[in-house]
Amino acid sequence: MAKKGARDIALDVLNRVEEQKSYSNLELRNVLDRTELNASDVGLVTELVYGTIQRKLTLDHVLSHFVGGKKVQTWVRNLLRLSLYQIRFLDRIPERAAVHEAVEIAKKRGHQGVASMVNGVLRNVLRQPDVWERIPEGDTAKRIAVAYSHPEWLVRQWIKEYGEETTKAICEANNRTPHSSIRVNPLKAKKNELLQQLTEAVGAVHESALSQDGLLIEGGHAAGTRWFKEGFYTIQDESSMLVAPALAPKPGMRVLDACAAPGGKTTHLAELMGDQGQIIASDVHPHKRDLIANAAKRLGISIIEPIVSDALDLPDKGLGTFDRILLDAPCSGLGVIRRKPDLKWNKTPEDVRAIAQLQYELLKTLSTMLAPGGMLVYSTCTIEPKENQDIVRRFVAEHPEFMLDNTLRDDLPQAVSDKVDETGAYIQILPHDFDSDGFFIARLKRR
Ligand SMILES: C[S@@+](CC[C@H](N)C(=O)[O-])C[C@H]1O[C@@H](n2cnc3c(N)ncnc32)[C@H](O)[C@@H]1O
């Protein structure tokens, strides 16, 4: 059997994601692990899958002008989306090549009628380039939703929370490719030296404006270098690097990280503590325990004790009290849409409500384990106030022994300090603020 090309493989992934309701990153990894594509084709498959999912609503809007009302099989619709994505959003692929490949795939998978239909639709789109500018009828939310390919309910919600212009900026940022960033491990490496070494090995490397521990890498495979294998750095988004410093951990302290896997922030905490003290790193999923242990081992960290527990059960485990607690809570993830575009299509308002309830319970439960005078950081990678500010506000209102710590700014880099809210205790980073993940960080203190 002839080997499958990049577009054929991308189409398989898109079909599986839709039919099995599975995650594109898992399906992609599954498929790419089993193929023998070269690096550039791996890049193309990845881009085609993420890009097509990202722009789905815009692509479907254009398709509706040509196949509206007709029943189209899932694989044919995905083939049309995939091809339109190349035509509109990938400069490096000639339009004729995209159409030709699509027709060949259609012939292979279907009958001649399907191939003619695919050919006809794509050529019609090419003949009418203004179709991309035809904005749908309807209100602002609907128009933004189609133009920037986001679900209407989410756009409507963001307009209410952030206004129209900010909503457009969020959606636009969500459609950009994320930077690749790393956090230098000070236990093993010096930032300037590593910057130099990586520049020679993988290409352009810059200092992060957001985190003093961060570097941005353009091109290259950050997890493939010998410095990664030797534990000189961790791959982490820049805004996520703000969380551990916000907890202000000091060497010798007892720290609890209650939702710790895969260990990105736990290991950062240990690095900031100079690997002195104790960190209990807990997660509910047994299979994730090794991820934390392996990360600590690779980075040369000894103070992390990974355990498996539902965070709601931690007070019954006889662990005593802690100087610092991190609750990096499970969340809707709506701040990391650019990395996981499926999220925006899969999440519902009901999901946000349900996870907010769990988040509040987690905060309430873990707060009982904080020593007097201790600090607790609550963080999420979402931009939904229901999961962020509302949780923290309600918590301090119902727990007078806790206060918002209005000195959070002291432990954040200058570049982000004007994003700290007027309470001085929390910061909401939106995806377009620094072209990073959307993140929320709040700091509470026990009186
Ligand atoms: C946002 S992720 C944590 C990321 C981690 N802090 C890092 O920086 O690598 C949330 C984690 O919470 C865990 N989790 C979900 N529900 C939990 C619960 N009830 N108790 C403990 N952990 C939970 C998930 O398994 C997931 O690993």
TrEMBL record:
Gene this protein is translated from: sun
Chain residues that bind S-adenosyl-L-methionine: 259-265, 283, 310, 328
GO molecular function: RNA binding; rRNA methyltransferase activity
Entry EC no(s): 2.1.1.176
Pfam families, sorted: Methyltr_RsmB-F, NusB, RsmF-B_ferredox
NCBIfam families found in the cross-reference section: PRK14902.1, rsmB
Assigned protein family: Belongs to the class I-like SAM-binding methyltransferase superfamily. RsmB/NOP family.
Protein name: 16S rRNA (cytosine(967)-C(5))-methyltransferase
Catalytic residues, chain numbering: 381 (nucleophile)
Location of the SAM-dependent MTase RsmB/NOP-type domain: 170-447
Keywords in alphabetical order: Cytoplasm, Methyltransferase, RNA-binding, rRNA processing, S-adenosyl-L-methionine, Transferase
Family matches, as InterPro entries: MeTrfase_RsmB-F_NOP2_cat, MeTrfase_RsmB-F_NOP2_dom, NusB-like_sf, NusB_RsmB_TIM44, RCMT, rRNA_ssu_MeTfrase_B, RsmB-like_ferredoxin, RsmB/NOL1/NOP2-like_CS
GO cellular component, one term: cytoplasm
Reactions catalysed according to its record: cytidine(967) in 16S rRNA + S-adenosyl-L-methionine = 5-methylcytidine(967) in 16S rRNA + S-adenosyl-L-homocysteine + H(+)
